[in-house]
Specification:
By secondary structure, this protein is an alpha/beta fold. It has a domain of 152 residues: 2-enoyl-CoA Hydratase, Chain A, domain 1 (Alpha-Beta Complex). It contains eleven helices and eight strands. Strand 3, helix 2 and strand 4 form a beta-alpha-beta unit. Strands 1, 2, 3, 4, 5, 6, 7 and 8 form an eight-stranded mixed β-sheet that branches. This is Biotin-independent malonate decarboxylase subunit gamma. Keywords: Lyase. It is an enzyme of class 4 (lyase).
Length: 235
């Protein structure tokens, strides 16, 4: 789904969103109030320019529109893998974006992420996964690392990882597996505008992903480790 078709379904009360070099920014009306819209399109990789543009848009919202909800529309193939971006410190730009999102949250901005097409690696980590709650469309492509790349990094044969992925969502791509792990709150289908209204009303600033992953059976140890650290007990 292209971003304009998505926005038409997501914001039936109207929207003013501009696209510039695969970067989306603007405003929309949701349930009678204005929300800020920030995102990417065309599977664009997140380089220093887009990371900085997203950060600037978040900070402008915090400065000019206190507590206005922020909607993050995610479609990215991950961070841009170029020597130039690495030399400029793409990791610092993406960390800056994540910090800006946290600043917005601490200043009362509800942040909702929606993966409407593709979400890979670092581009997803510092956008949708930084939201108070992240959702996805049924046909979205989501993964932090593909199994071939994971096999090269871990030295575990790809065939073994493929077998593990059948039962363990940590190794498997796709929105359903990220729901099981708690990374996604839910998958949206049908009336997207109603889904967004509901998400905004239910959003909270407390990170529930580990608890959701434990309850859904996708991440069995994360919450247990967190509880043990807080209590000082051994796992």
């Amino acid at each position: 789904m292209n971003w304009h078709a998505l926005a038409t379904r997501l914001f039936p009360q109207g929207f003013e969103i501009a696209e510039h070099a695969c970067f989306l920014s603007g405003t929309a009306q949701v349930d009678g109030r204005s929300v800020a819209v920030i995102g990417t399109t065309e599977h664009t990789p997140i380089g220093v320019e887009i990371a900085l543009a997203q950060a600037q848009a978040v900070l402008a919202t915090v400065r000019d529109h206190p507590q206005r909800p922020i909607i993050i529309l995610v479609d990215t193939q991950g961070q841009r893998l170029r020597h130039r971006d690495e030399m400029l410190g793409i990791n610092s730009y993406m960390a800056h974006l994540g910090k800006c999102m946290e600043l917005a949250r601490r200043n009362g901005h509800v942040i909702i992420g929606l993966v409407y097409d593709q979400a890979l690696s670092g581009g997803f980590l510092t956008s949708g996964l930084m939201a108070d709650a992240c959702y996805a469309l049924p046909d979205a492509t989501i993964r932090v690392m593909g199994l071939p790349a994971m096999a090269r990094i871990t030295k575990v044969p790809e065939e073994r990882l493929t077998e593990l992925a059948k039962d363990n969502p940590v190794f498997a791509p796709g929105p359903a597996n990220y729901v099981r792990m708690g990374g996604l709150q839910a998958i949206w289908d049908g009336d997207l505008a109603a889904c967004l209204v509901k998400a905004l009303s239910e959003a909270g600033s407390t990170d529930q992903r580990s608890a959701l992953g434990q309850a859904r059976g996708g991440r069995k140890w994360a919450q247990r480790v967190i509880d043990a650290v807080i209590s000082g007990d051994h796992v």
